[in-house]
Amino acid sequence: MAQKTYAGIAVDVNEEGYFTDPSKWTKEMAAEIAKEEGVNFTETHIKVLDFIRDRFIKGEMLTIRSVGKSGIVDIKGFYELFPGAPMKKAARIAGIPKPASCV
Question: The whole model's pTM is what?
């Protein structure tokens, strides 16, 4: 298991860079991870990440469709916020494990 330092705090990450302990995550860390992912971090990103983290904590399935129905962004907007692989990028930036729906 590897360690990364974000916002001055060392956290354990798996081989793909996902947090192994989501409780260590902060919004300051998210901004740094977003920069690594090439994402221009905004308030809308934070709202989407909060939604994703809330769903994860509740044990609910995370899918692109569920984010699109969140009322925060539609599916097209989600792809624009997190280009390429939106759920994988959003999960990594949100400090949660890669969702099962991602390959």
Answer: 0.92
